[in-house]
Amino acid sequence: MAEQDAEQDAEQEAERDAERDAEQDVEQDVEQDVEQDVERGAGHEHVRVAVIGSGFGGLGAAVRLRREGVTDFVVLERAGSVGGTWRDNSYPGCTCDVPSHLYSFSFAPNPDWPRAFSGQEHIRAYLERVTDVFGLRPHLRLNSEVKKMTWDASRLVWVVETSSGTLLADLVVSATGPLSDPKVPDVPGLDSFPGKVFHSARWDHDYDLRGKRVAMVGTGASAIQIVPAIQPDVSHLTLFQRTPPWVMPRVDRAIGGAERAVHRALPFTTRVRRGLSWGVRELQVQAFTRHPGELGVVEAVARRNMHRAVKDPALRAKLTPDYRIGCKRILLSSEYYPALTRPNVDVVASGLSEVRGATVVAADGSSAEVDAIVFGTGFHVTDMPIADRVVGADGRTLAEAWAERGMRALRGASAAGFPNWMTVIGPNTGLGNSSMILMIESQLNYLADYVRQLDVLGGRVALDARPAAVDAWNDRLQERMLRTVWNTGGCSSWYLDAKGRNTTVWPGTTSEFRRATRRVDLTEYQVLRATAAPQDDLNSPVEVGA
Question: What is the pLDDT of residue 27?
Answer without folding.
Answer: 47
